[in-house]
Write a structure and sequence with these properties.
The complex is a heterodimer of chains A (555) and B (132).
Chain A: H1 3-24, H2 54-57, E1 81-82, E2 85-86, H3 91-103, E3 109-111, H4 115-118, H5 142-148, E4 158-161, H6 167-181, E5 189-192, H7 196-203, H8 210-227, E6 231-232, E7 234-237, H9 239-243, H10 248-268, H11 273-276, E8 280-286, H12 290-311, H13 317-320, E9 324-328, H14 341-354, E10 359-361, H15 374-389, H16 404-427, H17 430-435, H18 438-455, H19 483-498, H20 501-516, H21 522-530, H22 535-546
Chain B: E1 6-10, H1 19-30, E2 34-37, H2 44-53, E3 58-63, H3 68-81, E4 88-93, H4 100-105, E5 111-112, H5 118-128
Parallel strand pairs in B: 1-2, 1-3, 3-4, 4-5
């Protein structure tokens, strides 16, 4: 008998023995599952991964198919970028928070915009009432952006901006601020989220219909390839898909399907795949099921590498690499016993690091209740710093590789993802699948199933459906001053009175003409921004030409 | 035959987080109610119009953007103006505890925070329905 046969026999005997004792002392559950409902076997052994070609499936760090990470030495070279998503109230207050975070050892900025900004409304728009400065900073024009980055050298920090439908406008403002600082566009580092497809399915800050939205996105790809070469032109996001209730497999599948749609659109617009693909980046969630999450990141890298190489024929290895940001899972935080969230965030951050993330945001314990206070943001950042400097998990790349369980999970997630991608291909691609509501329905079904599992106590959430205590309402939460809205409205009125109105008008006219034609929209948007045209004015011009997206509602 | 309870689940404000709204909508439907979900970014005026048009018994508001103090009372106010003050209005989302007394004083019957079981909401509707 060879070794594998002997092992097979031993496992069989072991299983029979366990079954017998199981009859007397049953296991806790009839079926064990991951957070995403994948069955977890009683035991994993070398037999589970015996048939796989190690080099082909797992390989080496920094080498195709990048299962073990995109850099060869990973965190031995340098730690991931610690990047806390922040922004609230006015540009002045957010600027102060950024300076605080940089002073605490944070290594990159991540800008949260308020909802009117994200949907292309100025602060004085009727729909903005009550929303200005609430979930992020209010940016109406270049004047606000100048304050936001005042005293922050844009050639030294990298900045991620969570902005989608109006991404071109905010990128243009960033370029214009840098120019005023004497920093040329080719020296800028950062990311715009710019991922409209997941807005339609999960996040909701869409403006225009899919076709012109895809044009805006590919215009950014083309512009940045020439002018802002180090900029990550998109962050294709699974984060919000997961927050909306998807499983880990769905998160990866729908994100990569969106990625395929963007690459297709860019190629159709005449771009060479290796010209833009190296600047594509991704954004994933990290939930509590540690091993499943690590396997998810590994599987995502492997699947994407094959998509880029085999499906799109990319030749540049940089086009094959799935680089990603991670944020810990907001929806896993409980409003009950919020201190426990520090522990959840630690597990999730550990998953992201073991999964080889390029940057990480750790949530603060109070985020199920309000925007985080400075004190709770510090704990969240310290969690990353402890993982990096004290836990030892960053000392060798992909330390869980070779675990029979993790490799098996990586394979099963990969299979699940590929099955979904085939289904979406059959529907005509991600845009069609979204228009038909297929992706939304899949996510909603998972969200509902999860909620029912929790209500039936089939899933335990500590402090929520077990181990509850009587609690006093939390104190000391962050509140945004309601006067921010009024101040912002005053500011915008003053700006309109002060600027060269004729120049603004001409720039907006030029933008309209470009939008009606086929020219790249970035140059006219940049020109308009520099005349202090407001975000709302620019988006209104495009609304006039492109129309607005009307979703079909279902539940 | 007994008329089924009619509910409008609405998302006032600009935030796009409607996981909760959709889960609630489905749970109420599974509990035998007739449910209409408005979709995102509804103004108080649109919500009230839908409630009256659909002859709703209940309006369930969901918001996570922080604009609740501005938008929730406006819904109740408009319903009263239109003579539909007997429609039960309640809300949910990320809403600080300290805002709840104010919202209740403005006619919002209850606020359900994160982690509330859907069965709690179903029971609440059944025991607090104002329309006969």
């Amino acid at each position: 008998m060879n070794e594998s046969d002997r092992l097979g026999k031993a496992v069989q005997d072991w299983d029979a023995k366990v079954e017998k004792s199981n009859a007397k002392f049953p296991e806790r559950k009839a079926r064990f599952v991951t957070g995403s409902n994948v069955t977890v076997n009683r035991l994993y052994t070398p037999l589970d991964i015996e048939s796989q070609d190690h080099l082909e499936k797992v390989g080496l760090p920094g080498e195709f198919p990048y299962t073990r990470g995109v850099q060869s030495t990973m965190f031995r070279g340098r730690f991931w970028t610690m990047r806390q998503y922040a922004g609230f109230a006015s540009a002045e207050e957010s600027n102060a928070r950024y300076k605080f975070l940089l002073a605490q050892g944070q290594t990159g900025l991540s800008v949260a915009f308020d909802l009117p900004t994200q949907i292309g409304y100025d602060s004085d728009h009727p729909l903005a009432a009550g929303e200005v400065g609430k979930v992020g900073v209010a940016i109406d024009s270049l004047a606000d952006m100048e304050i936001l980055f005042d005293g922050i050298p844009l050639d030294k920090v990298s900045t991620s901006m969570t902005i989608n439908a109006p991404a071109s406008v905010l990128l243009a403002m960033y370029i214009a601020v840098a120019e005023k600082q004497g920093v040329s566009a080719d020296k800028l580092n950062g990311t715009i989220q710019n991922d409209i497809l997941k807005e339609y399915v999960a996040r909701g800050t869409y403006i225009y219909p899919p076709t012109p939205s895809m044009r805006l996105i590919t215009d950014i790809f083309a512009f940045c390839a020439k002018e802002v070469q180090n900029w990550n032109t998109i962050s294709i996001s699974g984060y919000h898909i997961r927050e909306a209730g998807s499983t880990a497999i769905q998160e990866v599948a729908f994100t990569l399907a969106d990625g395929i749609a963007y690459v297709d659109a860019a190629i159709k617009a005449g771009l060479d795949v290796d010209e833009f693909a190296p600047r594509l980046s991704f954004f994933f969630n990290a939930h509590n099921d540690l091993f499943e999450e690590v396997a998810k990141f590994r599987a995502a890298r492997r699947v994407w590498a094959h998509i880029m190489k085999d499906r799109f024929g990319a030749k540049n290895p940089k086009s094959w690499m799935l680089r990603f940001h991670t944020q810990t899972g907001g929806s896993t935080l409980t409003a009950q016993q919020p201190e426990n969230n520090v522990v959840r965030v630690t597990i999730q951050a550990l998953a992201a690091v073991l999964g080889g993330t390029q940057s990480l945001h750790t949530n603060s314990k109070d985020e199920a209740l309000a925007l985080p206070t400075e004190a709770s943001v510090r704990i969240a950042l310290r969690t990353q710093q402890i993982l990096a400097n004290e836990s030892g998990v960053a000392e060798t790349p992909d330390p869980l590789a070779g675990s029979y369980y993790v490799e098996s999970l990586t394979n099963s997630i990969e299979e699940g993802v590929l099955a979904y991608i085939r289904r979406i291909d059959d529907l005509g691609g991600a845009v069609k699948a979204i228009e038909q509501g297929y992706i939304q329905q899949e996510i909603q079904d998972s969200a509902y199933a999860w909620q029912m599992d929790v209500e039936k106590n089939e899933r335990i959430v500590v402090g929520l459906n077990k181990f509850q205590v009587k609690e006093d309402p939390p104190k000391g939460l962050l509140r945004v001053d309601p006067a921010v809205g009024e101040k912002q409205v005053e500011k915008i009125g003053a700006l309109r009175a002060k600027r060269d109105g004729a120049a603004t008008k001409a720039a907006l006219e030029a933008l309209k003409a470009a939008a009606m034609g086929t020219d790249n929209l970035m140059p006219p948007i940049l020109a308009a921004v520099k005349t202090y045209a407001t975000l709302g004015e620019i988006c209104d011009v495009l609304r006039g030409v492109f129309g607005e997206y009307r979703p079909s509602v279902m539940f | 035959m007994e008329r089924r309870i009619r509910v409008i689940v609405a998302k006032p404000g600009l935030d796009g987080h409607d996981r909760g709204a959709k889960v609630i909508a489905r749970a109420l439907r599974d509990a035998g109610m007739e449910v209409i979900y408005t979709g995102l970014r509804q103004t108080p005026e649109q919500i009230v119009q839908a409630a009256i048009q659909e002859d709703a018994d209940v309006v369930a508001l969901s918001i996570l953007s922080g604009a609740h103090n501005h938008l929730f009372p406006r819904v109740v106010e408009l319903l009263r103006e239109k003579g539909a003050g007997d429609i039960l209005v309640f809300g949910g989302g990320v809403i600080p505890e300290e805002d709840i007394p104010y919202l209740k004083s403005k006619g919002i019957a209850e606020i359900f925070g994160p982690g509330t079981p859907t069965t709690t909401t179903v029971d609440f509707i059944k025991t607090h329905l104002k329309r006969e």
